[in-house]
Design a protein that fits this description.
Number of domains: 2
Structural class: alpha/beta
Distance between the termini: 70 Å
Radius of gyration: 22 Å
Shape: globular
Helix content: 10-25%
Order of helices and strands: EHEEHEEHHHEHEHEEHEEEEEEEEE
CATH superfamily of the largest domain: P-loop containing nucleotide triphosphate hydrolases
Number of helices: 8
Number of strands: 18
Length: 401
């Protein structure tokens, strides 16, 4: 049984030092644990994973997936219950987990390897493979605080996967990597499992889950709903999503302030009116209201549009078409409009996933809202109508020459 209570998040050493320093200079007393309301992030969760299993942990945002991984990785402790782990655990739960921003990529490989319990000789024997996999050789002697989020992930994953842990734990962090790198990571995790090691994988990308995992666990509101083979669990998860709370508009539920946060969002038509149902020949707009309380250097945004099977249909980044629209935004509210052209998406239901980050994410609080919007596309106009089976509905011009 695994049980975790309290809304207080896990705190890194740098946070403890920083908070102590702030309290000394400001004269303010630190908040005690009594200032936090009780909240069961995980409630009576119990399961067994066999050696060599590739297990997906799925569920909506807030289901308890990341908390479970932090407990299994021994980053935070359960209030009640116990975990029995047989083997060395390597975790990749956040961008740059275990990295020191002032140290170079080279130095962080040795630092992170040591944190994972590897000897210097072991790290040296794998060093060239790590560098080759991460594809950051040119920047190996550059402080990692200057790395982009993608470079952070490349190096962090390379270290975690190549230093031969018995158990590899990977959160949704791979979503910030490009498609080619994600494919390479999936391949590496498959290699890890084939050698008899265990993989725990949290992802909203159902294609990646199907390609990698042979078993799955569904969490909902901190409770374990089902543990089974992949397909039965995914079918139940996707079915539960159809009656989810996502709609054509979103308002940020948390009153806690961050340096950059999505305050609201909506699906709109060509006239700017809010809607969540469109004909295939209509454009779909995504209206995003971003609040900046503190300027964040090299801020960028990432959007994914997924179908009802959680397959990625559209993937876009603000850096795709320079200049990056988010880099340099000042304090206050800024509205952005993303337009999906008509005849792009085929018939079906779609979910919009949003993420914001920065090369200097470790120094700022930048939110990843996750799944925020849902809309539907229908086709009562074209000849093929709802018989169209493709993921997209691009119209090709058959021009006679």
């Amino acid at each position: 049984m695994i049980r975790h209570e309290g809304r207080e998040r896990y705190v890194a050493l740098r946070d403890v030092v920083s908070n102590k320093a702030k309290s000394l200079f400001s004269g303010k007393r630190e908040l005690t644990s009594s200032a936090y309301e009780e909240f069961k992030a995980l409630d009576d969760v119990s399961f067994t994973i066999e050696q060599g299993d590739r297990v997906a942990i799925v569920g909506r945002n807030g289901a308890g997936k990341s908390t479970l991984l932090k407990i299994l990785s021994r980053i935070t402790s359960p209030t009640k219950g116990r975990i029995i782990l047989d083997g060395r655990v390597a975790s990749l739960l956040e961008v740059g987990t275990g990295f020191h921003p002032e140290l170079s990529g080279r130095e962080n490989i040795f630092l992170n390897g040591s944190i994972l319990g590897m000897s210097k000789a072991e790290i040296k024997s794998k060093f060239d493979e790590i560098v080759a996999f991460s594809e950051v050789e040119r920047f190996l002697d550059t402080p990692v605080k200057r790395y982009s989020s993608g470079m952070y992930v490349r190096l962090a994953f390379a270290v975690a996967a190549h230093l031969e842990p018995e158990i590899l734990v990977v959160d949704e962090v791979l979503a910030v990597g490009d498609a080619a790198f994600q494919k390479k990571c999936i391949g590496k995790m498959q290699d890890v499992s084939k050698s008899g090691r265990t993989v725990l994988f949290v992802s909203h990308n159902m294609s990646a889950v199907r390609n990698l995992c042979n078993k799955a666990i569904l969490l909902q509101n901190g409770k374990l709903i089902v543990q089974d083979e992949v397909e039965p669990v995914l079918e139940r998860y996707l079915a539960s999503n159809q009656t989810g709370q996502l709609t054509g508009n979103y308002t940020r539920p948390d009153k806690k302030q961050s340096d950059v946060m999505l305050s609201s969002a909506a699906v709109v038509d060509a006239q700017g009116e809010e809607r969540n149902a469109f004909e295939i020949i209509e454009q779909v707009g995504l209206k995003l209201n971003l609040t900046c309380n503190k300027p964040v250097p090299n801020l960028y945004g990432y959007v994914v549009v997924k179908n009802s099977n959680e397959e990625v249909i559209i993937e876009s980044d603000t850096k795709d078409l320079p200049p990056n629209a988010l880099d340099g935004i000042t304090e206050g509210n800024t509205t952005f409009l993303l337009t999906i052209p008509a005849n792009t998406l085929s018939v079906g239901e779609y979910t919009v996933y949003l993420s914001f980050s920065s090369s200097f994410a470790a120094d700022f609080s930048v939110e990843t809202p996750g799944d925020v919007l849902r809309f539907a596309i229908s086709d009562s106009i074209t000849e093929r109508g709802h018989n169209r089976r493709s993921y997209t509905s691009v119209l090709l011009n058959w021009q006679k020459k």
